[in-house]
Structure formats: C-alpha cells, structure tokens
Amino acid sequence: xxxxxxxxxxxxTKALDWANEYDLFITSNSDAHYxxxxxxxxxxxxxxMTLIFAKDKSLDSLKExxxxxxxxxxxxxxxxxxxxILEDFFKASVQFEVLSTSGKGTRMVSIKNNxxxxxxxxxxxxxxxxxxxxxxxxxxxxKEDLVVTVENMxxxxxxxxxxxxxx
Length: 167
Hints:
By secondary structure, this protein is of the alpha+beta class. The protein is built from four helices and 14 strands. The longest helix is centred in the middle third of the chain and has 11 residues, at 83-93.
C-alpha cells in the first residue's frame, strides 16, 4: 500500500509519480548497514525519516494515518508527499507576519520556521533558505498575497507546492 521514494541519499521521483498514480502512501528509509553516524553525523544532516501524522500514539491511529496517506518522506533536506499534506505541513510550521508597511507600496514581512527542517522558498526571483528554527525578513508588495513555492518539497517528479499566504 506504500512506496519508498527515498533510500539513503537516493530520491526516486518516479516512485513519487507511482504513489500518485496508484494511490500509495510515501516513505523514506535509511537502508543503513553500518553506523548511521558515519553517513549522517559527519555531514550534519537529518537522517532519513518518514513523518506520520497520527491523531495519537496508538497503533490504530498510526495505521489510520498511513492508510489515509498522512506521511511525508524526508531525506537530506528534501521532503516528498501528497500535495495537500505538504501544503498543510508548511502552513502549520511557518509563520508570516507583516512587520511594517511603507508609503511606497511595500511591506516588510517576517517569515519564521518553527521546525527542525530547512525550507527553500521562492516568492519572486531567486530561491531563499529558511533555516530550521530561524526567521528571515523579506519585502513584499502591500496589496498582494504572498505566493510561495517550496522548492525542497516535491509531490511529483516535477512539481513543488505553491502556497498562497494571505497577509
């Protein structure tokens, strides 16, 4: 009922497309046959993991979450999952706040990451890192919603979530 889209350092985007095509839940695994410290600890990256969004810690709740495809695969700074779960996770973990508005049609916006996962986001122009547990400040137009592309999240071989943030 599921498919592994990440294994060790590998990200298998075709498996992500199969998950969409055949309605499969998504996982990430380490396939470690030696000390995980050698692979992950030295490089300062989070090891492969599958986030499962269960309602509580019971086995029944875990099974229900997997069957409902509430999983996100994570590996080496990449996240993969269903489009809706990725969008919901991003919206729940990142805060947007208008700090000031100028008389020239711009706003200063604080973007705060409340997770231990780094995001690569694009509002307009070049992509920007949003480090774990940090915030950045960006300029935005004063009358428009922010349209954020999360470039290290994938829900298909070629597509990232594009999320509209109302300020």
